[in-house]
Amino acid sequence: MAAPWLALTGPGFLRSARPWRSAGYLLATGLSGLLLCVVLLVSAIVSGVLVMVLVGLPMLAALALAGLPYAALERRLLRLLPGRPPAESPHREPDRPGLVAWLRTRYREQSTWRELGCTALAALVLWVIDLTAVGGAVLLPVWLLATPALLALDGEQVNVLKVWQIHDQPTAFALSLIGALLLAALSYPLTAVAMGRAALVRRLTGRTEQDRRIGELVSSRARLVDAFEAERRRIERDLHDGAQQRLVALAMNLGLARLDAPTGSPLAGRLADAHREVGQVLSELRELINGIHPQVLADRGLPEAVADLADRSPVPVDLAFELPGRPPPAVEAAGYFAVAEALANIAKHSGANRARLTGRYADGRLAVEVSDDGHGGADPARGTGLTGLADRLAVVDGTLTVSSPPGGPTLLRLEIPCTLTSRPPHRSG
């Protein structure tokens, strides 16, 4: 942060391009601020007049977003100043496609209102300071520098600042020398004004340290989710292709050994016990593999996977689940295990006679609802698995809402923002 300011005290400051780039920056921001002032003033007047017929209300609402394009311009103009990397946009991508989602995201962001404040400041105050600084630090010394040339062109006299009348070249050259000294001396405050303005713009329109940390946390969480999902798939493959196949081979060998053992002998009994144990271990291993990452989920997608859960549920489930494509693997896994936990809770705690499971994709969100006709009273604080379910959904930016009054019914709704891939639709119902 201090490095650009230290350049003011460097020995090569006057020989560098920094003073001229600072002047160009202030001139550009001053002119753009003046134009912005005119545009905002006209827009506010027109919107105020049209409010009487309600047409101006959308225009007034749109004025709140006027800071977005102007802040983007301010960030681009910062590139005129050396010594600092370009300012990053503080805005995040909407969690779903469409104009409504974009507007909702922008109106909720603090950075939108910071940029609006910067825009108002630039339109009302900063452009005056910018143009005054450029005029005082550049135009006045340049005018003095040009006095000998102006006198030579006129041949008789030249008016300096409409105050002095110069008739001879010696006086003109003296003023030219003063102009050169002023230009050098005023380069320091001019550059300081430009750097101070740039720092203010970075603070109001750029990505703050908090925004950067939040972005890094979101990115790192997404990477961890993807890595965890990949590792879970690897473990599932290793168990399926390794340990399970070995157990199947062992079960077959024990079955063949039982055929060779004398009927009714102690050896035949021990082989039968061993064969039965291997079968139980194999069954438990298959359940473990299915719990790590069910093969039906990987092969056929979420609708078919939740249909399999509904078929295996002790409580009858009415199913209506339709998706026009496939969510990302992490979203599929989160949705699948959330449904599995919900159906398990219904079987264990609800006392329900029937349940209903629906799923659809709309407005960039996967929405799943699980309801039952049980006695209700589901409370995450009582350790029914709802807390863990909410934590699992939070990893993929999902939300969980539960309505379960005493006496029922219970409605559990989960939503996960995602984008579907263009695969053939899966339907279950």
TrEMBL record:
The keyword Iron-sulfur does not apply. One of its GO terms (molecular function) is protein dimerization activity. The chain crosses the membrane at residues 23-45, 51-73, 116-144, 172-194. One of its GO terms (cellular component) is membrane. Coiled coil: none annotated. Pfam families: HisKA_3, Sensor. It comes from the Bacteria. Residues 25-204 form the Putative sensor domain. Keywords: ATP-binding, Kinase, Membrane, Nucleotide-binding, Phosphoprotein, Transferase, Transmembrane, Transmembrane helix, Two-component regulatory system. Its EC number is 2.7.13.3. Residues 231-297 form the Signal transduction histidine kinase subgroup 3 dimerisation and phosphoacceptor domain. Signal peptide: none annotated. It catalyses: ATP + protein L-histidine = ADP + protein N-phospho-L-histidine. It is an enzyme of class 2 (transferase). The keyword Membrane applies. This is histidine kinase. It comes from Kitasatospora gansuensis. The lineage of its organism: Bacteria, Bacillati, Actinomycetota, Actinomycetes, Kitasatosporales.
